[in-house]
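Subject: two folds for Thursday's group meeting

Dear M.,

Sorry for the delay on this. The cluster queue was jammed most of the week, so I only got both jobs back this morning. I'm pasting them in the order they finished. Each block is the input sequence followed by the predicted structure tokens. Could you check whether the formatting survives your parser before we put anything on slides? The first protein is the one we discussed after the seminar.
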Amino acid sequence: MIVQNVGDAMNTTLERIRAIRSMLTDGEHQDKNSHTIEELFVYLEPAEFALAGLFLSTPFLQPVPLPGLSTPLGFLLAFLSFLQIIGRGHLYLPARIRNHRVERETLQKILSFAEKIIISLSKLPNCRIPERVRFLRHPRVLGVHVLFMAFLLALPLPIPFSNSIPAWGIVFCSLTLIEGNGYFLALSYLILVLNLFFFGTLVYFTLQLLMSEGLSALMTSEGLSQLSALIRNFF
């Protein structure tokens, strides 16, 4: 990999985030308290899939799960990933989703948090992806990654890191698409493996509890707490 200067890294993503934040507060939009999903995707063009993946996953980077929010946003990301895989854009989203409104204050909070994450990650140098593995960063290949991790994100699990591990995977897939950084590509595949290990372990302990306690015991709050404790102790 060819390493560029650290200062050259992440400029594209930061510029887009700051441009969108500025657009939301300019004279044309300053009187609007909310924006539709369709308006937001117009702001994100032409990197709508990558930027949407980045923005929609950043609220879940904390270890504490957010099951009430992760399910709708996870399914939205899964739908977007499917459209990416088949070569379609946001106009193919159902009208009900495209017309859904989001508060401007909420958008600014998400953009502000995303900007902080990007500034932190900008300490990594920008490495060009070698030609022999360039197919690994193909938008449709990474779209499959995001589709898988979006479904994991959508699972309403009260388990620590059950949101954050898929969310980090989506973040690095999105950044790979925007920046073409070899480090982000490597991290996206590493976190894909981590997701398989984490959720495979979760399935294993779930099956163990099912065999020992039964389905009815597992579905209680006490059973879920026991499963959560097993996962925490294992890691």
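Second protein, same layout:
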Amino acid sequence: MTVPSGAVTPLPVRIDVRGVSLNGDLSLPADAHGLVIFAHGSGSSRHSSRNRAVAIALQRARLGTLLLDLLTDEEERIDMTTAELRFDIPLLGDRVVAAVDWAAHHPTTAPLPIGLFGASTGAAAALIGAAEHPDSVRAVVSRGGRPDLAERALSRVKAPTLLIVGGNDHVVIELNRQAFAQLGAPKELQIVPGATHLFEERGALEEVSRLAADWFVRYLA
């Protein structure tokens, strides 16, 4: 496997939660001053090219990353047919909570302050994780997320939260504005001009990476 310049070779990890094991890729720069756990959503996984691109940018900013599958292989196969588990926000949130607990107690990651990065429905799961671990989670970033699906957890989030939305993703912008109004923590809503939901436009994902790295460095360093 070729590792891009500035990236860190990932270490496979498994996290046990409520009778299932979740696969993850843990990447820790030697001088890491924080750990960002990625919560994928809407049929995505730790192999998401977009989230991996953001993870590399964070590693270059001296932040460790944990890209985690929130569904097991069997659940992924079911979800490919039914698309039901990707919207099971309580299930996804519970697994992010377990990942934060794992990171807070694992010998290699326990000393590091924790941030959460959520995409699509994973953003709601990340916010639930932040609400359940107010003493452990120091920052949250949502990319094209559905923070509105976190519902009652929003008012309990204490971690500074950044919501990033594409300028042409009009429905999701409105949903993010609704969630933004319910957040009581320090917060920002950043709209990337000309970008659609997946940030596939030239330079859009690079802007997401820059915004996320700046946010996490500010609150985790």
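Two things I noticed about the second structure. The helical segments are 49-60, 73-82, 89-105, 121-132, 170-182, 204-220. The chain is about 35% helix and 25% strand.

Cheers,
T.
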